[in-house]
Amino acid sequence: MNVKLFLVAVSIFLNSNAQNIPLYVGTYTNEDSKGIYHLQFNTKTGELSNKTLAVATQNPSFISFSPNKKFIYAAGESSISAVSAFKVESEGKLKLINTVSSNGKGPCHVSINSLGDKAVVSNYRGGNISIYSINKDGSLNEASQTFNHNTDERASHAHSAQFYKDLLYVADLGMNAVYQYKLTDNAYSLVSPAIVKTTGNPGPRHFSLSHDGTFIYIINEYGSSITSVKKTANGFEEIDYDSTLDDHYKGKNSCADIHLSKDERFLYGSNRGENSIAVFKRNPLDGTIQKIQNISVHGDWPRNFTLDPTGKFLLVANKKSNNISVFKIDKKSGKLTFLHATDLPTPVCLLF
């Protein structure tokens, strides 16, 4: 090979590698899966490649990065109900740092604050949340606070929680409410057991916050809907309520995940049953949304999905069909176009 051809080949190789970023996948391990997987995602083509097992661990059903991406935290829906901290090592491998109790059955969600020094775990079956401090080496301390939402009359099912500055929001499917907590003197206290009133049994599951914290978009598992909420000087108000389903779909459905686009012009939600992604156009002025597309996920049971860091692709974890579907996002319209699917056992959480 002459020098010019050699340099061209090297350039192509380097450019191809520069386009690849890591994708971690949390799974259920009761079938063929072994734990958390690592893949390479090409931000130019949307291709997934080089699947490897990052670490063997039981039922890492939800995973989250530390802000510096040196550590990953996993909610383990195992017999011991735990949350684990892992260190990111070379070639995408993960090394267990430590594991602590989630203080409740069925941990299904873990979230890290923007400073990387606190974690919150939602326990679905336990009906409570636990808050942890994180050490500089990434390890978790035992929970400093646990909040139990159960009452004598009703069973709680805490499903997700997110920090926003000194606030903490919790979506509780069993209580049909989004709770609000506030940090004071390094401890959280309850501000409101329901930021807005709900009617019927919608089942708030996950939610997405606007960058400035003014708007909260809540996806309802039972109601197959999105509740749009605005923060006001006196609290919160519901500004919109929209179905996630196509007008012609009449079957059973359970909503799962929800995400705003980086520019906040579009909102996406997943339907398990219709097996689709619902796409909404968002009014940046008043925060209201309008559905513009329902597209098949080319799989079964889209429990979780994510947008890649470039904002050009949307990836869906289809639990029951054992695959990850990749879609191209139209920058102007926000609509999706299916590209391809990659096989992977029982994927339930995708993390860039």
TrEMBL record:
Alphabetical UniProt keywords: Carbohydrate metabolism, Glucose metabolism, Hydrolase, Signal
The enzyme's E.C. designation: 3.1.1.-
One Pfam family this sequence matches: Lactonase
Example of a GO MF term: hydrolase activity
Stored InterPro entries: Cycloisomerase_2, Haem_d1_sf, Lactonase_7-beta_prop, WD40/YVTN_repeat-like_dom_sf
The keyword Hydrolase is annotated on this UniProt entry: yes
Enzyme type, top EC level: hydrolase
Gene3D superfamilies hit by this protein: YVTN repeat-like/Quinoprotein amine dehydrogenase
Signal peptide: 1-20
PANTHER family named in the record: 6-PHOSPHOGLUCONOLACTONASE, 6-PHOSPHOGLUCONOLACTONASE-RELATED
Family membership: Belongs to the cycloisomerase 2 family.
Name recorded for this polypeptide: Lactonase family protein
Organism of origin: Flavivirga aquimarina
